[in-house]
Every structure is written in C-alpha cells, then in structure tokens.
Design a protein that fits this description.
By secondary structure, this protein is an alpha/beta fold. 42% of the residues lie in helices and 15% in strands. It folds into two domains: 2-190 and 363-380, 3-Layer(aba) Sandwich (Rossmann fold), CATH 3.40.50; 205-362, 3-Layer(aba) Sandwich (Rossmann fold), CATH 3.40.50. The chain is built from 13 helices and 13 strands. It is globular, with a radius of gyration of 22 Å.
Length: 381
C-alpha cells in the first residue's frame, strides 16, 4: 500500500509532529507500507524527531512567509501566487507517486489537498475541535475581520467535506461536530513512548506542558496558583513551552508575586524525565484537539487534573479514578483539586498508578491496528 502524508514541516518539537512521525515510522517499519512524506517548507531545518530511513521525504520548499513582507492589498496577491505555486508543485508530485491514499495531517492547506486530481482516497485528519479550528485569538477584537474569518472558515469546511473521501477525528465529540457520520471515522492518538520509570509522586512539583497561547490557558493556571500557593507555599509549578504569550505570562507571574513559585521553561526533548520528577500534571486548556500530553503524563505515573474542555480530556480521564475533570473554566474547583492531591499523598500515588495503567489503551498495539483496518477498508471500497 502506498500512502502520502502532507504536512508543512517536521521542524517543531510539538505533539502533532511527534505523533505524525511515530505513525509513519510504525506503518513503514511494522506494516511495510510504502510511506511518502511531502512537506511544504522543511527547508534546511533538521527533523525534530527521527524519521525512518524507509520513509521517502519530498520537500516542495514553498515560502509562504514572504506574503507577510507586503502590506494589503499586495499581500493578498502574493499569497495567491505562492498558494498557486504550491498547489501546482504538489499536484505534479502526486501524479508521479500515484498513491493509494493521501492524508492531509492537519487543517493546513486541507482545501488544496482535498481537491487534488488523482485516483487516491483523500483523508483529512482533524486535530482540533471543529468549532475552534482556524480560531485566531489575536483578531477577536476586530468584529469585521472576525466575521470575514468565520465566513471563510465555513467555505473552507464545505470544500473539505465535499471533496475529501473521509475525515478522521480523534474524538467522538469532534466527529459529531462535522455532522456527517458516513464521512467521519474516529481513531485516537497513539503513544509510542511508554514510560518504564514512573514518578514517585514525592517531589513538591506540579507540571504543565504546552504552547504558550491563549488556547492553552496558562494565564488561568497562573491566576489560580495564587490560591494554591497560599495553602502550600513550598510547592512549585513548572511550565514547559514557548509561544507568543511568553512575555505576557512572565509579567503575570511577577505581578502576582509568584516568581519564586512558578517557572516557565523552554520546550525540552526530555519532558518524560521532567514529568517523572513531578507529582501532579495540570491541563488548563480552554479547548483541545485531543490532549496527547495528558496520556504522556499518565504513562509517567502522574495523576492529571484537566478542564473538561472540548475535546479529548473526557475521553482520556476517568474522573476520580486516574485523574480529575473540572467543569470548563472553573478556576476555584481546579485550585481545590490541586490542593487535594497535594494534601493526600497516598491517594495521589494510587491515582498515578491507575493513570499509568489507563494510558496503555493508547499503546501502538491497540491503536495502529485501527489504522490498518481503516486503510484496508477504504482501499477496497
């Protein structure tokens, strides 16, 4: 079977990139599928995660960013030219490869991918709740631009639904949002790195991981940590990530007087080690596509506390058993549960052990056969 994955680049140290590489490597190494990776803008950047030698990588080297060197309306003209060049180059590559299946790995250029002229079955993966896909928090104050953005998103979604063979979602909630059961297929994320050393849950550390954006809710976590700190001043919060809000979040930490209790660290490839040195994991996201980082924390033996946001956490956490689900946005309730785990050591450790066992549901031997079955079904249809 010949499968083409299309992504922008494997240069960021992110959950999506890690999942994509893990899946492609598994399909190439274990199932012996002929896997191609087409990137639009890898350039000279090194891979953020090791790619199997069996995978054929083609980089189109499209410079989408040059549009931002120009002001409107010229920017729109440059954007159209760059997109047209990308579409033509991608079409040529697809005709040469002649794959059985094409997978658009994100919302990125999904409209272009779904309209490729070929005999392959085209799949679009949805990695974010549909109602939040394409959401841009930086323009939320401009109502005119936001309206244009939403209308364009509706058009974009209609193109995807009309032209793709099917849409693969990570959760049932997201599948329902797409609204066409015959065109959706649910396969959760896979976690290939299963921890063998678990956290002792003894260290007075709480950990959170993610991009420093509005979506991830670290402003909420910093705000509620003041309540935690009043009761447990010895405990610290370590946040790992980078992003557009880093300076703002650091300013918030100082404003709250928590600079001795909260530290923002850069992303690290040794996040499992950092998790194993912590005792509780917190996910304060306003919305998610799945929440793979929850499973990563659970496999390291950490009890997890998460807002019950759309979508993912409620699929992963069994409330009160391997973690706690908090009503979305309830700051006081999240602070209370953090304090509860801090104050109840034995319960914290028991919950961490259950979390590790629960995370095994997402091991490759349980998830990858779902992809194999799915691929076989659509190729035969």
């Amino acid at each position: 079977m010949k499968i083409v994955y299309i992504h922008d680049s494997i240069a960021r140290i992110g959950g999506l990139e890690r999942i994509l590489v893990d899946k492609m490597n598994y399909l190439a190494e274990v199932y012996n599928y002929e896997i191609y990776l087409i990137t639009s803008s890898q350039g000279e950047h090194p891979y953020s995660f090791p790619l199997s030698s069996k995978i054929k990588h083609i980089d189109i080297n499209t410079r989408f960013h040059i549009q931002y060197l120009y002001k409107y309306p010229k920017r729109l003209w440059i954007k159209w030219k760059v997109n047209r060049k990308f579409k033509n180059n991608l079409q040529k590559r697809i005709q040469t490869i002649n794959p059985d299946i094409i997978i658009g790995t994100t919302y990125y250029e999904a409209d272009t991918i779904s309209q490729l002229k070929c005999n392959a079955k085209i799949i679009i993966e949805s990695h974010c709740a549909k109602s939040y896909t394409g959401k841009n928090d930086r323009i939320k104050r401009n109502l005119i631009i936001q309206l244009f953005y939403r209308l364009n998103l509706i058009r974009y979604n209609n193109i995807i639904k009309k032209n793709s063979y099917t849409i693969v979602t990570l959760t049932k909630g997201d599948a329902i949002e797409w609204g066409e059961p015959h065109k959706t297929y649910v396969i959760p994320n896979v976690i290939t790195q299963i921890a063998t050393t678990l956290s002792s849950c003894d260290n007075k550390k709480v950990i959170a991981v993610g991009r420093l954006t509005h979506q991830k809710g670290f402003d909420i976590l910093i705000k509620l940590w003041k309540t935690v700190n009043l009761k447990h001043p010895i405990w610290v919060l370590d946040i790992y990530g980078s992003g557009e809000l880093e300076n703002i979040l650091n300013e918030q930490i100082c404003k709250e007087g928590l600079q001795n209790n909260i530290t923002i660290h850069p992303p690290t490839t040794k996040i499992y080690q950092e998790m194993q040195n912590s005792s509780v994991f917190v996910l304060p996201s306003r919305y998610e596509g799945f929440g793979l980082v929850l499973i990563e924390a659970m496999t390291n033996g950490l009890p997890c506390i998460s807002f019950d946001c759309p979508y993912g956490p409620s699929d992963i956490i069994t409330d009160g058993e391997d973690g706690f689900l908090i009503h979305n946005g309830d700051i006081q309730a999240m602070a209370d549960k953090i304090c509860y785990l801090i104050e109840n050591e034995n319960f914290r450790k028991q919950m961490g052990q259950k979390a590790h066992q629960s995370a095994m549901r997402y091991a490759p031997e349980n998830i990858m056969p779902m992809w194999e079955k799915f691929f076989n079904e659509i190729v035969k249809s």
